[in-house]
Amino acid sequence: MLSFENVTIQQDDFSLAANWQAGPGQRIAVIGPSGAGKSTLLNALAGFIPLASGHIRWEGQPLDELAPGRRPLSILFQDQNLFPHLTVAQNLGLGLDPSLRRVDTAAVDRALERVGLGGLGNRRPAALSGGQQSRAALARALLRARPMLLLDEPFAALGPALKAEMLALVEELAGPALVLMVTHDPEDAQRFSSHTILVADGVAAPPASTEALFANPPPALARYLGT
Amino acid sequence: MARRAGALIATGLAALTLGPVAVVLAQAGRGGVGTADLAALRFTVTQAALSALASTACAVPLARALARRRFAGRRLMITALGAPFLLPVIVAVLGLLAVFGRAGLVNDGLRLLGLAPVSIFGLGGVVLAHIFLNMPLATRMLLQGWQAIPAERLRLAASLDFRPTDFWRHIEAPMLRDVLPGVLLAVFAICLTSFAVVLILGGGPAATTVELAIYQAIRFEFDLPRAATLALMQVGTCGLAVALASFFTTPGGFGAGLDRQADLPASGGWRQLIDFGAIGLAATFLALPIGAVVLRGLPGLASLPAGVWPGLLTSLLVALCTAPLAVSAALVLALARAQGARWLEPVAMLPMAGSQLVLGTGLFLLVFPFVAPPDLAVPVTILVTAVMALPFAYRILLPEARVLVADYGRLAESLGLRGWAALRLLILPRLRRPLGFALGLTAALAVGDLGVVALFAAEHGATLPLVISRLMAAYRMEAAAAASLLLVIAAFGVFWICDRWGRAGAEL
């Protein structure tokens, strides 16, 4: 269980409040106008932005003191998800052991196979297409096997078909993990997530049923959707 | 990942830099500021400002030409550009005297044309020598700026059909705005504390720098109050320069690239002519004095005096200890600064506000009651040289460290990549090129350095530059020239090895 307890995030004159819970295995979209704080919410959860007040807990344990790498989550950024000077296999290996000393290469190969990159482990990221780079980053998240997966629009640069393919792959790989996905595309939310968090007007609202939310959008969402 | 280590090193560095100044002050008491002191201050700032402006003005067209033109010998020239800065200063001045001196090539030519000879002594000569010594460093720093423009940006420019003026306005000018303050400050600060050049080409009431005045106050008059006053002036001037530069430096904002190779656009016509003109002029200006040193030194190389070889070994030992010490400390500081520890900036630049002689005198007074100074000549030389070289290494590493942290800091953190693993897997591979350059630079500086060692060394423990200066003092010019050549080979050799290591990694 992930819980935001009276959390506020403060950055200069921007502030965001969140107070809600989400359960394991849920697929949750984070939607809202640009600049409203979707990425900020994920970055705070990942440990890159300190909280001004409140606590974030996972299974009752506060995360506040944990370094980003120690938190029970994996995050995929918009870009820069792979180190260009390491091979794809090394990039994946970092998910098992950041020092790359005790890496189970068989596990890395299996993960590459599962995302359809079998045999490409020795390449460098620059030799992969955009979709393949996304797959490699997903494969590393799979190896890390953390109970939460945060997606900060990592597929934004991909075409609709490829993006749909990636979302299906996430659905398949994430299994029991809680997935939080930032998107600006309502279709992504409707296709992928049972629940949706609306971020607008300085508040990250509690996860609501995606279907119900879009059937009867609150004013902020209606403005964003243009309906 | 480096913040705690950064704080630790910064504290040590501050103690090492400020401690000796405090010792000098405590021993010296108070002294008033005389008119000669003010004249020295005025000359110091004037020559440093002129030297910085002239060196950078020459370096911009040269770096631009080298960045966008491909020609045979380009790589050799880039490596050779390190030479004048790495050239031990005393040797560089000898070379310039051979070209621009009273009986030098230039004046021979002027006499043939029936024109009046020019003098290399005074303000003009000092600035000329500083351009010779610093323009190549400025060029290398600027060249790294050009090479750090991501290929994606070049592709974008090409796809938008940028004309050369657009490319300049949208890509090159913003890069220069970012890089130039650092370059100008580096040259300005080097010239503020320039010593050997002014000792030979300056002097007298009209052309004495603060550093030279400190030396004279300590060596000839042992007038510590006056030396302390001068040292304070030096610290104040350099501190102001550092503060100004940090105010003007802004982060790059160029974004990351995925290491794809692409060439800078290179148009033909008069632009090509100007580029190759700049390259040719610079090559001639830099090669002539070095050639003169080689010609003068070669004949004596077979019969070097006995003291030369132990001197060479000592110099190499000093370099071997100094370079890793200075560069690893600079790397930790640069990474910690890039991660947001703003207060480290002035601390890392603190050595620039001091001078070798102030630092050396302070340490001398500190150890004098307990040990015989000659016993500590080598360790003290290593320590002081490393401290003085640290800001250069820091300046070289900081921009790249910033890019590294901006691009991959969050990814590394999210994966728990830290400590030694981060050093091995992320920092060394990504920063190998600037690290190799910084290592080479500090090693060569250490090999050719003649400063604090002169205060400490006796017959044993002398470095090669000190041996050379003693040969010169004994008017054994032939032997001095030959030993200079050996020194040049050693300095250039250690630089070449380190820089090659760095650039071999950058080919990935």
Q: Can I get a quick summary?
A:
The complex is a heterodimer of chains A (227) and B (508). Chain A is α/β, with parallel strands linked by helices and 227 residues long.
Keywords:
heterodimer, A: 227 residues, alpha/beta, Rossmann fold, 2 domains, eleven-stranded mixed beta sheet, 8 helices, 11 strands, B: 508 residues, mainly alpha, MetI-like fold, 22 helices, globular
Total domain count of chain A = 2
Largest interface (CB < 8 Å): A-B, 27 and 23 residues
State the share of residues found in helices of chain A, binned by percent.
25-40%
Percent in helix of chain B = over 70%
Approximate shape of chain A: globular
Please give the largest β-sheet of chain A.
11 strands, mixed
Number of helices of chain A: 8
Poorly predicted parts of chain A: none
With helices defined by DSSP (H or I, 4 residues minimum), what is the helix count of chain B?
Answer: 22
Structural class of chain B: mainly alpha
CATH T-level fold name of the largest domain in chain A: Rossmann fold
Tell me, briefly, the overall form of chain B: globular
* Nearest-integer average pLDDT of chain B: 83
Number of strands of chain A: 11
Q: What's the average pLDDT of chain A?
A: 92
What proportion strand of chain B?
A: under 5%
CATH-assigned fold name of one domain in chain B: MetI-like fold
CATH architecture of one domain in chain B: Orthogonal Bundle
CA-CA gap between termini of chain B: 25 Å
Oligomer: heterodimer
Please tell me about this protein's structure.
The complex is a heterodimer of chains A (about 230) and B (about 500). Chain A is of the alpha/beta class and about 230 residues long. Chain A has two domains: about 1-70 and about 145-225, P-loop containing nucleotide triphosphate hydrolases (Rossmann fold, 3-Layer(aba) Sandwich), CATH 3.40.50.300; about 85-145. Chain A has helices spanning about 40-45, 90-95, 105-115, 130-145, 160-175, 185-190, 210-215, 220-225, and strands spanning about 1-10, 15-20, 25-30, 55-60, 60, 75, 150, 180, 195-200, 205, 210. In chain A, strands 1, 2, 3, 4, 5, 6, 7, 8, 9, 10 and 11 form an eleven-stranded mixed β-sheet that branches. In chain A, helix 3 packs across helix 4. The longest helix of chain A has 15 residues, at about 130-145. Chain B has a domain at about 1-30 and about 300-508: MetI-like fold (Orthogonal Bundle). Chain B is globular and about 65 Å long. Chain B starts with a helix and ends with a helix. In chain B, helix 1 runs antiparallel to helix 12 and helix 21 (about 465-475) packs antiparallel against helix 22. Residues about 250-260 of chain B have low confidence and may be disordered. By secondary structure, chain B is an all-alpha fold.
